[in-house]
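Researcher: Structure prediction, please.
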Amino acid sequence: MTIFRMIWLATIVLGIGAQIIMFSLQVGALRRYRHKSFWLLAAGSTCFATYAAIGAVPYFVTLNTSALSGLLSVGVAFALIGVVVGVWGTTSLFRRFGELQRAAAGVIS
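Model: Predicted structure follows.
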């Protein structure tokens, strides 16, 4: 395995690890606060971890061009869904934080 491929694989493994950590934090927050933003963020993390895992498949399985193209297309679909759901979850969390901040300041509208 070339150094480039080893660095690429290490990046994928680190990405999956980071997503697993984020997912566990989001699930913990969901259990504690029961807000929909944490569902969305956890779903986004799951999509990104799946995208990263799909990116690692060619390191372990030899695929022809057609199969590789199909696999990477599925991976990109997971990434796009992860972006949409992750941004939605972040926006929802920021809105909720704003509501709580206004309530704490006593100026809720």
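Model: Helices lie at 3-33, 36-60, 65-105.
Researcher: Thanks, that helps.
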